[in-house]
Design brief:
This protein has helices at residues 2-23, 51-62, 82-90, 105-108, 117-127, 133-158, 165-179, and strands spanning 65-68, 76-79. It is mainly alpha-helical. It has a domain at 1-91. A hairpin with a 7-residue loop joins β1 and β2 (76-79). α6 packs antiparallel against α7 (165-179). The radius of gyration is 20 Å and the shape is globular. Belongs to the cytochrome P450 family.
Amino acid sequence: MAVAEILLGALVLLVVLWIISFTSAENPIKRIPGPAPLPIIGNAHQMKTDVLDLLLKFKVKYGSIFKMRIMLFEPSIFTTGLKFVEEVSKSYDFLDKANSYRFSHNWLGTSVLTAAGEKWKIRRKILNPAFGVTVLEASVESFNTFGDILLRKLQSEVKNQSIDIYQHLNLYSLDVICGR
């Protein structure tokens, strides 16, 4: 009985904190347009369709910057504005990651994609020369070619069963790196 009461109390506390954080008048994220989230599940109910199509629809409806909330996580901000992406990716003002990144550490480790703070800064300095605009522009054809191969492999393997995508992504990465 006491365990159920504690769990219920924790759930109520989480919901109250979520409502307070979301309705806070001084929250600058409130000014960013986006679809209205439902309590607890946020915008997860809208992701039943193809996610890319959904994001494109939201881009048309809300503009080049919009927000969505998935479950109780803080809102995710999406952008298609190249200048905004450049500023964020060049800046050291955005060193911290959202709490939702912690869930990807088991899968991706603490790579430059998921690391935060000083760890991110060090890894970013090491990798920066390899990801300059000219290098990336020269790699687009490889990304597309090997991406198509990866998709064909995944489509032939999936057939209504789950697969371990980790090895496929590793092979794709090696193909792109070695294939250019």
